[in-house]
Design brief:
Helices cover 62% and strands 0% of the residues. The protein is an all-alpha fold. The model has no long low-confidence stretch (mean pLDDT 85). InterPro entries: DUF1468.
């Protein structure tokens, strides 16, 4: 059996277990007034489990297969690709995740959105910096003010 089918079989087991938990165990402790709601806390997990089982069965039965074509990435020629950029971007993601709390959301996200394109080769500073700063402040405002979820905007030593 091909690797994709083995992975689909493993994921099928995970989705069936997840679906069992969503369909039979999650709603047992609901309060009586919540049982009349049209959407329960288990609605999204139920939908995810059904869609996951369907996707796994499609892969297992080979319904997604088409005519064989040349692979886009040849693992035997990995040195021909820009691995340095990919590894640097992954490292930047890890540094972003680690700096999010101590450095604050605004500084960390702005730095990530500015340094990421630099790693990938973008040099249009006039567009990159305003877009990164605008996106950072819009996301912070929406999460902080609209949704009411506190996110430390500034580093702790500045008063964030």
């Amino acid at each position: 059996m091909a690797l994709d089918r083995w992975i689909a079989l493993i994921l099928l087991g995970i989705f069936v277990t997840y679906g069992y938990a969503a369909w039979f165990t999650m709603d047992d402790n609901l309060a009586p007034f919540m049982r009349r709601n049209p959407i329960w806390p288990s609605t999204f997990p139920k939908v995810l489990s059904v869609l996951g089982v369907i996707a796994c069965l499609i892969v297992l039965f080979g319904l997604e297969k088409s005519e064989p074509k040349e692979p886009e990435i040849d693992y035997r020629r990995l040195t021909d690709y820009n691995l340095g950029q990919a590894i640097a971007l992954l490292a930047l993601m890890v540094v972003y995740a680690l700096c999010l709390r101590p450095a604050g959301f605004i500084f960390s996200t702005s730095a990530f959105l500015i340094l990421g394109p630099i790693i990938l080769g973008e040099r249009n500073w006039k567009i990159m910096i305003p877009v990164a700063l605008t996106a950072t402040f819009v996301v912070w405002y929406l999460v902080q003010e609209v949704l009411g979820i506190y996110m430390r905007p500034l580093p702790g030593f500045i008063g964030g």
